[in-house]
Design goal:
The chain has 165 residues and is an alpha+beta fold. It has helices at residues 13-28, 56-65, 97-107, 133-140, and strands spanning 5-11, 46-51, 72-83, 86-94, 121-129, 146-156, 161-164. The two termini are 26 Å apart.
Length: 165
């Protein structure tokens, strides 16, 4: 599978710390955690778009339509499981309609997108065996959080660069 280009929204320091708390709680319980991911872009974030390639005009589009909406509050509305025998555990986010609309417009005419549509979320763990899900849910609890999304960044795996737009 090719490394994917991405646009991502990052929370402020308080939101980052809240997500890192979840990551640490999973690790402390001996479960998979995003803390285990050693990639250069690994920090709490909300993926907006991933694709095999992204044209430069998409950077301009994101700057014009999505960046002006920041900062924005996104409320975690619960945990979800994505996947099959091994799952990703994520916090689903409620975001304002204007942000959703800007993201869906940004997705237009992007070839080789990884996913259709947009499911705003923060990933807490990947490849969790289903047998460990009850423990993970107990560790994470049921408290929702609000993240203040403050930054739009662009990951270019071909150039190995991460930059704020």
């Amino acid at each position: 599978m090719p490394r994917l280009h991405a646009f991502e929204l990052l929370p402020d320091e308080e939101g980052r710390d809240a997500v890192l708390h979840d990551w640490q709680a999973l690790r402390d319980a001996g479960l998979p955690s995003q803390l285990d991911h050693k990639g250069m872009t690994n920090t709490p974030h909300v993926t907006v778009l991933t694709a095999e390639t992204l044209d430069a005009d998409k950077d301009e589009h994101a700057l014009r339509h999505l960046a002006p909406l920041l900062p924005v509050l996104a409320r975690s509305s619960g945990l979800a499981l994505l996947g099959g025998s091994r799952v990703s555990i994520v916090r689903i986010l409620d975001v304002p309609d204007e942000v959703t609309s800007a993201v869906l417009t940004l997705l237009t005419d992007v070839p080789h997108r990884q996913h259709p549509g947009w499911l705003p979320h923060v990933t807490l763990a990947r490849r969790v065996p289903r047998a460990d899900v009850p423990t993970a849910l107990r560790v994470l609890g049921h408290e929702d959080m609000t993240l203040r999304l403050v930054e739009l960044r662009r990951w270019d795996p071909d150039a190995a660069t991460v930059r704020t737009l």
